Amino acid sequence: MISEPRMGRITQGTIFCGGHAEHYSGLPVWGLVITARCDTVHEKTPIVNYLPVVTIEDWLRGHGGLLTLDREEADVRNRFKNLLAKQQLSASLLEVHSPEEIARLHFSVHAELGSSKATKEAREAQEAKDIATWLDRLQQCLHSSLPNSTIQTNVTRCRKSVEAVVKDLLTHKLAGY
Prior knowledge:
Elements: E1 15-17, E2 30-33, H1 37-41, E3 50-53, H2 56-61, H3 63-86, H4 93-96, H5 99-106, H6 116-142, H7 150-155, H8 159-170
Antiparallel strand pairs: 1-2, 2-3
């Protein structure tokens, strides 16, 4: 049953502005009342429970951004592991050393410059260093607590991951959001 809103009357399903959401301080937050209609009508409870609602842009700068970066980090980590496997190195190196350290130590050019082998090795070494740098940035961002100003900067490089997270959000595949 849908009815016209009445000033001063809060019932289940009421949407209001001025809500509070953890990690979204200073940003516009709305609330969707979830307290049972019978409890609010008969004033059985002094507390009104609500779900905080924020804009998609703010969500992508916060929790959605972390989900995006988490997916991106998994993808980049797999790419780096593939590079390690090509060099016949164990992926367990990542458990002990930083990706940048691994790239610096194990992806250097040893052949004479000018040969096709040296060019290929140089290209692979640069790719490993680029991936390692990106992986380190992602990991640092993921280990920082919200609010995190670096999320937005990093998310802009993750178009595919952003699209996947938004699609999952819209198709109700993200539990809790």
